[in-house]
Amino acid sequence: MAKKETGLKATLSALGPKVPVKQTTVDVEKTEAATRVIHSEKKEKTYRQTVDLPEEVFKQWKIKLVMEGKTMQETLLSLVENYIKR
Known about the structure:
Layout: H1 8-14, H2 28-40, H3 55-68, H4 72-85
């Protein structure tokens, strides 16, 4: 029985030849300007909240959100605002 080669060299040689990666240039000023626009859209301070949900409830909620074209954030915000108003 032949000894199986192990290690990084054997693994890399089994992957095949190297494929050149397309080089792209990044316009740093354009990227920074876009980043400033994105981050300037938030006018008020926000807080992050983590909630544990049963898996089945989460799946059903996610399906309904997709069908309605809504996001979790806007749905939760609406629920909290309605709860506060009661």
